[in-house]
Amino acid sequence: MCSRFELNINELNLLKRYNKKQITKFKPKEEVFPGQQILTLCDDFDYMRWGIDVDFMKKSIINSRIEKIYTSKFFKEDFEYRRCLIPATAFFEWNQKNKDKYRLTVKSQKIFSIAGIFREYKSQETRIRHVSMLTTEAKGLMSEIHTRMPIILPQSFEQIYLSGKNHEEIHEFIFKNYIDLELENLSDSQLTFL
């Protein structure tokens, strides 16, 4: 499970990384929490609320398991038609055994993209999008900390993930590829609390 991440980079570097011309009201964040408006990318940058609301759950769904995309009627359509990128500079995870907090980054990438799916809620006056991160079984160093991890996409695959029509091939590609992570153990004094 991933319940915190970071997008701590200047706007110019973010625009260069995704080859875009503008972002509205961008502010770097050292720690992003569920329920907040987060920067996402479909065709252009957009802000979405982190967590998809569903009738049968008390809490918003912030993470969606890639393994259940096709067995759960709830997520299949989102994965097929509403995929997005979630830009990040790091994500945080707590060791399930000793509760130490770790900051994880991608080797050789200051900014990386986490795979997301979203849902749009409309009323007469507003349109609100809610997003959930896709997660997979932890691999490599990450498996020593936690059983789950966000799906980090190779940069060369981002556009296919966003606009590719063959969702089954996209699904299969995600299972076969793994991005190397670097981790830093954070001391208690560096913990952030709500």
Distance between the termini: 18 Å
Indicate the low-confidence ranges by residue numbers. Answer: 188-194
Overall 3D geometry?
globular
Which CATH class is shown? Alpha Beta
Q: CATH superfamily name?
A: SOS response associated peptidase-like
Output the structural class: alpha+beta
**Which quaternary structure do these chains form?**
single chain
Please give the number of β-strands: 13
Beta-strand fraction estimate: 35-45%
Largest sheet: 8 strands, mixed
Radius of gyration: 16 Å
What is the CATH topology assignment?
hypothetical protein yedk fold
Number of domains: 1
How are the SSEs placed, and which strands pair?
Elements: E1 4-7, H1 11-18, E2 29-32, E3 37-41, E4 45-50, E5 63-65, H2 73-81, E6 83-88, E7 90-94, E8 101-106, E9 112-122, E10 127-137, E11 148-150, E12 152-153, H3 158-163, H4 167-176, E13 181-186
Parallel strand pairs: 4-10, 5-10
Antiparallel strand pairs: 1-2, 1-7, 3-4, 6-9, 7-8, 8-13, 9-10, 9-12, 10-11
Key phrases:
194 residues, alpha+beta, hypothetical protein yedk fold, five-stranded antiparallel sheet, globular, SRAP-like, DNA damage, protease, peptidase activity, lyase activity
Your description of this structure?
The chain has one domain (4-190): hypothetical protein yedk fold. The chain contains four helices and 13 strands. The chain has helices spanning 11-18, 73-81, 158-163, 167-176, and strands at 4-7, 29-32, 37-41, 45-50, 63-65, 83-88, 90-94, 101-106, 112-122, 127-137, 148-150, 152-153, 181-186. The strands form two sheets. Strands 3, 4, 5, 6, 9, 10, 11 and 12 form an eight-stranded mixed beta sheet that branches. The chain has a five-stranded antiparallel beta sheet with strand order 2-1-7-8-13, with no helix packed on it.
